[in-house]
Specification:
Structural class of chain A: alpha+beta
Number of helices of chain B: 10
Strand order of the largest sheet of chain B: 7-8-9-4-10-11
Order of helices and strands of chain A: HHEHEEHEHEHEEEHEHEHHHHH
Helix content of chain A: 40-55%
CATH architecture of the domain at 76-102 and 114-288 in chain B: 3-Layer(aba) Sandwich
Largest sheet of chain B: 6 strands, mixed
Number of domains of chain A: 2
Structural class of chain B: alpha/beta
Oligomer: heterodimer
Distance between the termini of chain A: 28 Å
Shape of chain B: globular
Order of helices and strands of chain B: HEEEEHEEHEHHHEHEHEEHH
Strand content of chain B: 15-25%
Strand content of chain A: 15-25%
Number of strands of chain B: 11
Radius of gyration of chain B: 19 Å
CATH superfamily of the domain at 76-102 and 114-288 in chain B: P-loop containing nucleotide triphosphate hydrolases
CATH class of the domain at 76-102 and 114-288 in chain B: Alpha Beta
C-alpha cells in the first residue's frame, strides 16, 4: 500500500461529500486566516509606532518649561526658558553629547495668499538645527539658513498641508504669503510626514526665531528647546548634561525642584510599542481559539464520516485491509482537510493583509504564516487521529453488520 | 484426514447423526495436500451464563459435559454448500471460516495455518491472501468504479499498479464484465454487482472462495449467471464454500452440509472432490433434473 494510493482513497473519500468537506475546510481556513491577519494587524500597529519614533528622530530631546504635570518637582518659582539657556546648551564644553540645539517658540496665525485664508495650527520660530532634530526634510526649495536667522529675514518653510491649503496647486517656493499681517517669502516645502496623532504635523510654518519673536510672540520666553543628541545611545548622557547646565542657568541646587523638564519622546513611544505587543498577543490568542474550534470541527466531521462509512470499513477489512491502512486513510483525509483549509487560509490571510484594517496597515509576520499553517496541519493529524483510530479498531464482523 | 479419523475414534457411534466418513467419498488419504479447511471441536458462544447462546456446538458429550464442537474438513478443490435455516449457525460458521470472527473454543486451520494464533495484522493478511468473500448484499465500496473495486484487494496486498490493473481486468473479463470496468455500483444491476464482487474475491487467487448467500438478492436469471461463474471457478480447481438456504443453489455443490441448532446433521456427497461440479458433469441431465428448471 503506497502513500499515493492512500492519498487517492483520501481524496475520493473527501470528494464523496463535497459540501461537508468544504465547510470543514472553511473552519480551518478561517482559523488560519484569522491568526495570520490578526497578528499582522497587531504587528502593523506596533510597526506604525516604531515608524513614528523614527520620524520623530530617536536622538531628539525636548526641554520644556515648568515642573510639568504629575512631576514630583517642588519648584516654587518657574524661570522661563530663554535663548541664553539654549546658547548654554549649545556649548560643547558643558554638554559634549549635544549635537545641536534649536530654541523654539510656537504660535498660531492665519496665512493669506491671494485671498485664500487658512489658520496654521503651528507657527514655529526656531534655528535651522530644528530641521535636523525634528527629522523634517524639505521636498521643494530649501531650508532657511543661519544667515536668515541672524538677519531676521521674513522667510518660511511650510508643511505640505499648509502648502496645499494656502497655495493650492501653485508651487509655493518663492511666493509671498501674509502670515498674521506680516509678509513671509516661502523658501521651502517640507515632505509629508503623515500624522498618527490628532494634530496634523504637516500643517506648520517654520520661520527664523527672531522673525517670529519680532512679529508675534515678543522676545520673552521660549516654548521649548529641541536638543539633538550626538547619537541615540547618547540621549541619556545628553539628558543629564542638559539638566546640569539648566540647573546652573536657573540657579537650582535641589535636583528634585527643577523648573524644567527634559523629555525623551522616543522612550514614551517605546512604552506604547510594548503595549501594542500585549495587544498583538491578545489578538493572536483569540485567533488561536478559532483555529482550535476549526480543529474540533475536523474531529466532528471525521467521526460522522467514520460512523457513516462503518460498513465500507468492514468491507475493506474483509478483503484484507490491515489496520494501519484504514488508520492511514482516515488520517490522510483529516490531514488533507486541514492541509487544504490551512493553505487556503494562508492565501486569504495574505490577501486580506494587503488591505488597510481599521486604519492600520497589517504587516504580516512570516513566522505566523508558517506557524499557523503548521499548527493547522498538526491539528488535522491530532484531531483526526481519534476518529481514525476508532475506524481502524472496528471489528470487521461488527462493521459489516452495521446498517 | 486426521480430523475425520479422530472424530470416528471419539465416538461417532454415540451420535445418531454422525457424519459419513468423507474418506469413502473420494478423500485423498493421509499423504495428500493439507485440507483447505480443517475445523476441530469448534464452538461459538454468545453471551455468558444463563443468557449464553450456543451458535455452534456440535454433538453433545455422551458424558454430559460441554458439547463436543463442530468438526469439519474441506479438501482442496471441493465445492461445499452449507445449508440451514436462520439461527442454525451457518452465518456464524461462515464468519469464523472467513476469519471475521473468532471461535470461543476449538481450532481452525486454514490452508494449514492455525488461525487462532494470529494477531490482527496477520489476520488481515490471511483475509487478503487466502479468502475471497462474496456477500449476499454484494458489499461493494460505494462510488467506486468496478475496476478499482477489483484492484482494491491487490492494492492492500501491495501489488504494483500495472500488475494490479492487468489482473483486475483479467478477473472482470472472467466474470463477463470486460465492458463495464469503469461503471460504478449504482450503474450496475444486482447480478452485475455480484459478478464484480466475485471478481474482487478471486483476483488475489485465494485458497477458497467464501460465498454467503451470494444469490439471495438476485433474480433467477442473475442467480444462474453467478452460479455458472462459481461452477466454472470450481471446475478450474478453486475451493468454494457457499452458504445458502435454497436447494436449487445447493444442487450445484459437490457436497452439502446441513446445520441445525449449531450441529452438522447431514453431510451428503453429490459429486467427487476431483472433477467438475454437478452442473458441468452432465449439463443436460442437470438442467432436466427436478429443481433444475429455475
Amino acid at each position: 500500500m503506497n502513500p499515493l494510493q492512500t492519498l487517492r482513497f483520501a481524496v475520493a473519500g473527501l470528494a464523496a461529500n463535497k459540501v461537508r468537506s468544504a465547510l470543514t475546510m472553511l473552519g480551518v481556513l478561517i482559523g488560519v486566516a484569522a491568526v495570520i491577519l490578526l497578528l499582522a494587524v497587531g504587528n502593523g500597529s506596533s510597526q506604525a509606532v516604531k515608524d513614528s519614533i523614527e520620524k520623530l528622530g530617536t536622538n531628539s530631546l525636548t526641554v520644556t518649561s515648568g515642573s510639568g504635570f504629575g512631576s514630583e518637582s517642588s519648584a516654587t518659582t518657574v524661570k522661563p526658558l530663554t535663548v541664553d539657556d539654549a546658547k548654554a546648551l549649545a556649548d560643547p564644553k558643558q554638554a559634549p553629547d549635544v549635537e545641536s540645539v534649536a530654541p523654539e517658540v510656537t504660535t498660531s496665525q492665519t496665512a493669506i495668499y491671494q485671498g485664500t485664508s487658512h489658520t496654521v495650527s503651528q507657527v514655529v520660530g526656531t534655528y535651522p538645527a530644528y530641521f535636523e532634530a525634528s527629522n523634517s526634510k524639505v521636498a521643494k526649495g530649501d531650508y532657511f539658513s543661519d544667515d536668515d536667522v541672524l538677519n531676521s529675514r521674513k522667510v518660511a518653510v511650510i508643511g505640505s498641508t499648509t502648502a496645499t491649503d494656502v497655495f493650492g496647486t501653485v508651487n509655493p517656493v518663492g511666493k509671498q504669503m501674509v502670515l498674521g499681517g506680516t509678509p513671509f517669502t516661502v523658501v521651502g516645502v517640507l515632505q509629508t510626514k503623515g500624522g498618527t496623532g490628532f494634530q496634523d504635523p504637516d500643517d506648520v510654518v517654520i520661520a527664523p526665531l527672531p522673525t517670529v519673536q519680532n512679529a508675534f510672540t515678543g522676545f520673552g520666553s521660549l516654548n521649548q528647546i529641541l536638543v539633538e543628541a550626538k547619537s541615540s545611545s547618547a540621549t541619556t548622557a545628553a539628558q543629564n548634561e542638559i539638566t546640569t547646565v539648566l540647573m546652573g542657568q536657573h540657579d537650582i541646587t535641589d535636583p528634585t525642584a527643577l523648573d524644567f523638564q527634559v523629555s525623551n519622546q522616543a522612550s514614551l513611544l517605546t512604552t506604547q510599542a510594548s503595549t501594542n505587543q500585549t495587544f498583538t498577543v491578545l489578538l493572536g490568542a483569540v485567533a488561536a481559539i478559532s483555529l482550535l474550534v476549526g480543529g474540533i470541527g475536523i474531529t466532528n466531521i471525521m467521526l460522522v464520516t467514520v460512523a457513516e462509512r462503518t460498513r465500507e470499513i468492514g468491507i475493506r477489512k474483509a478483503i484484507g485491509a490491515p489496520k494501519g491502512v484504514i488508520l492511514g486513510q482516515f488520517l490522510a483525509e483529516s490531514t488533507l482537510l486541514s492541509l487544504i483549509g490551512g493553505g487556503l487560509g494562508v492565501a486569504v490571510g495574505l490577501l486580506g493583509s494587503r488591505f488597510k484594517i481599521v486604519g492600520i496597515t497589517p504587516v504580516v509576520i512570516p513566522e505566523s504564516v508558517v506557524g499557523a499553517f503548521a499548527i493547522a496541519v498538526a491539528i488535522g493529524l491530532f484531531f483526526g487521529s481519534y476518529p481514525a483510530k476508532r475506524a481502524a479498531s472496528l471489528r470487521p464482523i461488527e462493521a459489516l453488520r452495521h446498517e | 484426514m486426521i480430523g475425520s479419523l479422530r472424530q470416528r475414534r471419539r465416538g461417532a457411534d454415540a451420535d445418531a447423526n454422525a457424519m459419513p466418513d468423507p474418506d469413502s467419498l473420494g478423500g485423498q488419504g493421509p499423504w495428500g495436500p493439507p485440507p483447505v479447511i480443517e475445523v476441530r471441536a469448534l464452538r461459538k458462544v454468545y453471551g455468558h451464563g444463563e443468557a449464553a447462546v450456543h451458535a455452534l456446538k456440535g454433538p453433545d458429550d455422551p458424558e454430559g459435559g460441554e458439547p463436543l464442537g463442530v468438526e469439519l474438513t474441506v479438501e482442496q478443490g471441493d465445492f461445499v454448500a452449507v445449508m440451514g435455516s436462520s439461527g442454525s449457525g451457518k452465518s456464524t460458521l461462515m464468519n469464523i471460516l472467513g476469519c471475521l470472527d473468532v471461535p470461543t473454543h476449538g481450532r481452525y486451520l486454514l490452508d494449514g495455518i492455525d488461525v487462532g494464533g494470529l494477531d490482527e495484522h496477520q489476520l488481515s493478511l490471511v483475509r487478503n491472501r487466502k479468502i475471497g468473500f462474496v456477500f449476499q448484499s454484494f458489499n461493494l465500496i460505494p462510488r467506486t468504479p468496478a475496476l478499482d473495486q477489483v484492484e482494491l484487494p491487490l492494492a492492500y496486498a501491495g501489488v504494483k499498479s500495472a500488475e494490479r490493473r492487468r489482473r483486475a481486468e483479467a478477473a472482470l473479463t472472467l466474470v463477463g464484465l470486460g465492458d463495464r470496468m469503469d461503471h460504478r455500483p449504482n450503474e450496475l444491476s444486482g447480478g452485475q454487482q455480484q459478478r464484480v464482487a466475485v471478481a474482487r474475491a478471486l483476483v488475489t487467487a485465494p485458497a477458497m472462495l467464501l460465498a454467503d448467500e451470494p444469490t439471495g438478492n438476485l433474480d433467477s436469471h442473475s442467480t444462474e449467471e453467478v452460479l455458472a461463474i462459481i461452477d466454472r471457478l470450481n471446475a478450474s480447481g478453486r475451493t468454494v464454500v457457499l452458504i445458502t438456504h435454497e436447494d436449487e443453489v445447493a444442487r450445484h455443490a459437490k457436497r452439502v452440509l446441513r446445520l441445525v441448532d449449531g450441529r452438522v446433521v447431514d453431510d451428503v456427497r453429490q459429486a467427487p472432490v476431483d472433477g467438475p461440479p454437478p452442473a458441468l458433469r452432465d449439463p443436460a441431465a442437470f438442467a432436466a433434473a427436478p429443481g433444475g428448471g429455475r
